[in-house]
C-alpha cells in the first residue's frame, strides 16, 4: 500500500509539472490592478510589510504595472510562501516569438513580401522593444514602441534611427502598431505599420504576426 501511494504521488507531481511548463500563459499568480503611481522608494518601504499581508496588495504600483502575488520562482516550489510585487503588465508576452508576414512597398507601388520573426524584449514601463529578424539571426534589428494606454492594444513608434544590417545603413523608422490578445486564447497578434526612406525613395513596412505557430 505504501508503494502504491508513493507511485500515485509521483505520477501526480509529474502531471502538475508538465501542465506548468506547457501552459502558454502564466496563470499561477494572483493579480490585482492598481492604478496608483509608485516610486522605487515607495516599493522598497512597503514591500516588507505587504509580503505578509493577507488582506490583498497594498503596494502603490504604477499604471503600467499589476500587483501580482508570486512565489519563489522555483518551478517545483508549488506550496511555498508567496509575496506581492509590482510587475510590468507587458511581461506576459516577454520573449514571445511572433511568426509574421511582411510586405515592403515603395512609393511607386512595387512590393516584396517575406516571412519574418519578431521577438519581444523585456518591457520598461510603457516602452517595449521588438527584435525583427528578416533573414536569420545575423540579419536583425530592434524597434522600440510606446503603448498609449496601460493595457495591450495600440502603440506608436516614435521616429528612431536604427542600423538595418540588410540595407547596411542607418534607417529612420516611425509609425504605429498593435499588440492584442486573441480572444479567450493565450495567443497574441502583433501588427507593425512603419514608414522609412532609403536612397531617396519612400517605403512602407507592414507586417502582421502571431505567436500561435499553427497559423503559419
Report on this structure.
The chain is mostly beta strands. The chain folds into two domains: 2-88, no CATH class; 94-215, Lipocalin (Beta Barrel). 15% of the residues lie in helices and 45% in strands. The chain has two helices and eleven strands, in the order αβαββββββββββ. The strands form two sheets. The chain has an eight-stranded antiparallel β-barrel with strand order 4-5-6-7-8-9-10-11. It has a three-stranded antiparallel sheet with strand order 1-2-3, with helices on one face. Strand 5 and strand 6 form a beta hairpin. The longest helix has 21 residues, at 2-22. Mean pLDDT is 80; it is low at 15-23 and 33-54.
How many structurally independent domains? 2
Measured on Cα atoms, how large is the radius of gyration? Answer: 22 Å
Count of separate DSSP helical elements? 2
How much of the sequence lies in strands comes to 35-45%
Average pLDDT across residues?
Answer: 80
> Can you tell me the overall shape?
elongated
